[in-house]
């Protein structure tokens, strides 16, 4: 079906589905209205308005793979707080850890008795030998970049066009007409981010080699599969080239596994044998509690010790925040690593994701749409392109805000919450087979409506 026709159908659907959403949520509408007196834009975090709904649904309860809004609508959640709740809302071992941590003190700026076990678990699970904690993945990326600059003595950073690594100034750039420029819409950005950051297309080995040639780049910061611009898989051999070229240029490789931790136990790096110098994870690593981790090789750790000694060791390093490494974080990390983020959890997630992938592909074919389904483990993305996209330019060309909004709203009205900003389905171990099948059936209904075809049963 032609894109223009599809967009026209999508606009009509949005109109109808918006009314359905409104009619079912008088309490959410009123609660949102009430909150405008206290919050900027009526929400505690401005991007809570970036859903394709006329106002946000207000959540009463979230547990496992389900949300209930304050109007009593039950919704199967495959957004999962955009990965923060990847292992399901409120996993029992994390809730237990929270309860116990509360009685033992939440934060002391001293290690708790969980520290040794957590350190050991991080090394075993993710491979790198030395770790530190932060509160968010944004923080962890900032700290890891700082370390990369400290140990290489270089200022510049390389990222891939279309990346998102959190609220980290150095990474908030776009590649426009071959130039790296500060991302449009950044608030209060007073310096030209293109001065110290180079952005190149993902999967472009020649551009990478050229950018690294001057040997002035401290680190390449990359997601192993780009998940924030549609979903862009690495081309065969790209990771091997990335590692070879960074090593040859004396540039460190910082892998951000915050989303690709969906791949399997140990994340994409462990499953696919990458060899990062630095690694970052946040979001679901503490089962939904604000904690992030960043790890480094022994060589970086040794070099950092020398630098710290030369600088006399103490004072403000620019790394760390007061609540990082707290007893609360350690307790939740331990519970999550030991009891939630397990081989068995990933097995269930993969099995459900297999089912959903097959079902979505069949629905797309039945509707006669030229879309693909990209996937990294438990994370699936519907891409409006007949072939997998190779870089951000292709991903942007394939995207359509209108079709995306129609898909999201229609799915939500059928009881399934997709992730905003893209067409992402994340599978938690709490998602039942029945819920996965329901999701597929809803998707078949919506794609059928969009394409004006009756989907195959
Ligand atoms: C790959 C990646 N890294 C880091 C972050 C930042 O996470 P947070 O917002 O929790 O700091 C995000 C957020 O979406 C992300 O997608």
TrEMBL record:
Cofactor dependence: pyridoxal 5'-phosphate
Keywords (A to Z) from UniProt: Pyridoxal phosphate
Alphabetical list of InterPro entries matching this protein: Aminotrans_3 (IPR005814), PyrdxlP-dep_Trfase (IPR015424), PyrdxlP-dep_Trfase_major (IPR015421), PyrdxlP-dep_Trfase_small (IPR015422)
Keyword presence, Acetylation: no
Recorded coiled-coil stretches: none
Single GO MF annotation: pyridoxal phosphate binding
Family: Belongs to the class-III pyridoxal-phosphate-dependent aminotransferase family.
Entry protein name: Glutamate-1-semialdehyde 2,1-aminomutase
Species of the source: Shinella granuli
High-level lineage: Bacteria, Pseudomonadati, Pseudomonadota, Alphaproteobacteria, Hyphomicrobiales
